[in-house]
Design a protein that fits this description.
This protein has one domain: 3-Layer(aba) Sandwich (Glutaredoxin). Helices cover 60% and strands 11% of the residues. The chain is built from nine helices and five strands. It has a five-stranded mixed sheet. The radius of gyration is 28 Å and the shape is elongated. The N and C termini lie far apart (93 Å). Belongs to the thioredoxin family. DsbA subfamily.
Length: 231
């Protein structure tokens, strides 16, 4: 074989190799697209139909727990965890300040259970279940006021059901409701909304959608409300 023939053969081999690489790349792209289409469709339809909707802090949902005047000029939205000690402290000071701020404010509580605490999610489930019997805020108060007792238990559900019994709730119904998928999704939706709004820890407080520093005392809470409404 002459040198010119060898060169021609090598050029032809390189062309064939390049063509095979192109065909392989096209095949990989096609396979990737075919694989991703059903995944994309699944994510799309999950976004449309799967899970509870997410609301920003200044927008009240029909599933939210709200106390205070419906036409109040200030909406205080708190993302909290029932087992978080700082959340319990803030709930206490809000309660102490409420006589001074309640006529001008409405309080919205949204769940933000942290992985740090083992009973957080279960406490949120029971609070939501109590809400189905019209007793969300009553159980909310008991969970926070007695947090030091149930937070250290290996199984806190006994304590949750004891509080519910003290409130006169239907315990069998409470248990059934606490296990509902829609209650779980409501809690997760609160958490997703908090993430979108910039929540990174608990408690996190918003005034009319504006993130605020956490007050340290009831008087500081009152002052914050007064200053915010005077702007």
């Amino acid at each position: 074989m002459t040198k010119s023939s060898e060169k021609k053969l090598k050029r032809e081999e390189k062309k064939q190799q390049a063509k095979r690489r192109q065909q392989l790349q096209k095949s990989l792209v096609t396979a990737f697209v075919v694989l991703m289409i059903p995944i994309a469709l699944y994510v799309f339809y999950q976004g449309l139909f799967g899970g509870a909707p997410v609301y920003p802090p200044d927008q009240i949902a029909s599933t939210d727990h709200v106390r205070g005047e419906a036409d109040a000029p200030l909406t205080i939205t708190v993302y909290g965890d029932f087992q978080c000690p700082n959340c319990a402290n803030e709930a206490t000071l809000i309660a102490q300040a409420w006589q001074q701020i309640g006529q001008r404010s409405r309080l919205v509580f949204r769940h933000y259970p942290l992985d740090t605490y083992p009973h957080s999610f279960e406490a949120a489930r029971y609070a939501e279940a109590a809400g189905r019997q019209g007793m969300f805020w009553e159980l909310y108060n008991m969970l926070y006021s007695d947090q030091g007792s149930w937070a250290v238990l290996p199984d806190a559900t006994v304590a949750f059901e004891d509080y519910a019994a003290q409130l006169g709730l239907d315990i069998e119904q409470l248990r059934a409701d606490a296990g509902l998928p829609e209650i779980r999704e409501k809690i997760l939706a609160d958490q997703r909304g908090g993430n979108r709004a910039g929540v990174r820890s608990t408690p996190t407080m918003f005034f009319n959608g504006e993130i605020m520093a956490n007050p340290r005392t009831a008087s500081e809470m009152i002052q914050m409300v007064n200053e915010f409404l005077s702007e």
